[in-house]
Amino acid sequence: MTFSEVIIDWYRQNKRELPWRKTTDPYKIWLSEIMLQQTRVDQGLPYYLAFEKAFPTVFDLADATEEKVLKLWQGLGYYSRARNLHHTAGYIARERKGEFPSSYKELLKLKGVGDYTASAIASISFNEASPVVDGNVYRVLSRYFGIDTPINSGRGIKYFKELAQELIDKEDPATFNQGIMEFGAVQCKPRSPLCSECPLNAGCVALKDNLVDQLPVKIRNARIKHRYFNYLIVHNEHRTLLFQRREKDIWQHLYEFPLVETEKPMSEEEIISHPQFKELIGENRFEISLYNKENVVHKLSHQHIHATFWIVYLKNDIEGGIRKSRIKEYPVPVLIANFVREYEF
């Protein structure tokens, strides 16, 4: 059997039963592919089911508020995906009357849709022989063919895309694309791949040359940036303060407590004397205490957030605050959600 035939045969026997595999509806395929970018299936599945229930059609998603979309997305990370999802739903619903583009090239023009997602929708929904190349596919191809070109280099991205185009089954591109992604996720796993029972092991260069643990090759990312977030949990008996992040930065449009970002960890005295603290609290009488003795380190792809939570109890009314009982209604970063759950206002 050819490479593509082996992949398709394996997939038909071993595929996991997942809801988006029971449809060719481009809305459902698009939704699942956007959610599963840089996300494990077991983590993304509950979110997919929640979105499918809340927004059964692209029109429902388009009509929702961004706040509701972000709240349902909360915890999945990479929030720009959710904002782009909502924006594109509006475009599809209003400008295209609910009809998705039916070709790879046209799908690429949608906001938030890149090469991988466009290929997935084009092949699964419209039977176009456009190959998907994600982390799973890179791993399968680099190991089987013994390719050490870095997968995140311009040359590597181009080479693997061309190779996948040569291999794709032109008659059944949907099954091949889903099959090779599933093969990488279940059989040719990043760690402890099931090489001894792999249907491709006879021709696998990495297995023959003992390179399985060394492939694929990836250029190391830039140095991790460290940021120090001092959250001021300003509250009184009934109310607290939340602000929406507006800057083009992490967690854009999500809500958080008043934030003082500094170059290093701060003492209580330094926080109280900080201009932002003074501007926020003004002449109000307050009591302050440190909630967490050790920084909470929240790791993102290219930066680590070192968070400190300062409890600031005011003895006055809070202008513009929200009722504590409503705090869980707002879309917030996981870092904030974890604190809210633990602190129990």
From TrEMBL:
SUPFAM superfamilies: DNA-glycosylase, Nudix. One of its GO terms (biological process) is mismatch repair. The keyword Cell membrane does not apply. It catalyses: Hydrolyzes free adenine bases from 7,8-dihydro-8-oxoguanine:adenine mismatched double-stranded DNA, leaving an apurinic site. SMART domains: ENDO3c, FES. Signal peptide: none annotated. Its cofactor is [4Fe-4S] cluster. Adenine glycosylase active on G-A mispairs. MutY also corrects error-prone DNA synthesis past GO lesions which are due to the oxidatively damaged form of guanine: 7,8-dihydro-8-oxoguanine (8-oxo-dGTP). This is Adenine DNA glycosylase.
